[in-house]
Amino acid sequence: MTLTGDVDLVPKSPFKTILNFRDVGHSINALQGSITEHINQAKKYGAGVSHTMKVSQSNHTAAAPLKIPNVHYYEINLNGKSFERALLWQLKWSSLLKLIKLMIMGYRTEAICILGREVMQPRGLVGLGKDSLDHARDGIREMLEVMAESNNYPLMIHCTQGKDRTGLSIMLLLLLLNTPLQVISADYLASERELLPEKDSRMAELRAVGLSEEFAGCPPAFVAELCDHINETYGSLQGYLMYLGVDRMMQEKIVGNLMDS
Predict the structure, then answer these.
(1) CA–CA gap between residue 96 and residue 75 (Å, rounded)
(2) Are the beta carbons of 216 and 41 closer than 8 angstroms?
(3) Exposure pattern of 68-104 as b/e (b: 16+ CB <10 Å)?
């Protein structure tokens, strides 16, 4: 099942050199036709942008991120050891032993290529999104704990491209706010348009580790299928959040902070 709103309504990045940057609240209001004081709030917070930023950082091959002075960073490994183990155990024993051997010998790219070709590619971005929900419990809970503290606002959430780990994080937050699925999906799909300028260079990196063009884009069914997975596996969003260790009080704090912001 695929549910999408009008992606063209999502505002484009205001920066020429920063891809896939947007105010999610502004985007959601535009998609829903809401008229709020959100822009005025954004201007007010703009003067204090040196407050807090949240970073989902788990790509070990990426260069160390540039850090802005006087900004507090939460470097959260969203897909940590539990997620990595879940992927590794999907390999055949012969492939797992070969991967370990390559890692020991220092052939990291070749080792990752085995995982990419035999596990990540067949799972696809939707399957890996489900794996993240099931096995990235600690990282997702840590992200939500940051969102629950009002002193951390305003916040910017990002990862390498701002569409996969960030997309999943934003999806969970918007679900908590009871945002319609087609609106969440439209905001997620806007990332594919925003990342087009770097698609060719990104494809070279993906092919090197055994991944196809799908991984450079945003699957139309991503949001709908992950929501179905949450409902089928955990009963509801609240059931999933309780599985993470995010109780009702923390959920209410997050909703209150986001609505106030």
Answers:
(1) 29
(2) no
(3) eeeeeebebbbbbeebeebbeebbeeebbeebeebee
Give pTM, 2 decimals.
0.84
CA nearest 23: which of 171, 150, 157, 168?
A: 157
Average the pLDDT over 134-150 and give the result.
96
Cis ω for the linkage preceding 180 (within 30 of 0): no
* Torsion sign (Cα): 107, 108, 110, 114: positive
What is the Cα–Cα distance from 131 to 125, expressed in whole angstroms?
10
Higher pLDDT pick, 164 / 18: 164
DSSP letters, 7-40, are GGGSPPPS-SSSTT---HHHHHHHHHT---SHHH
CA-based R_g, the chain, Å: 19
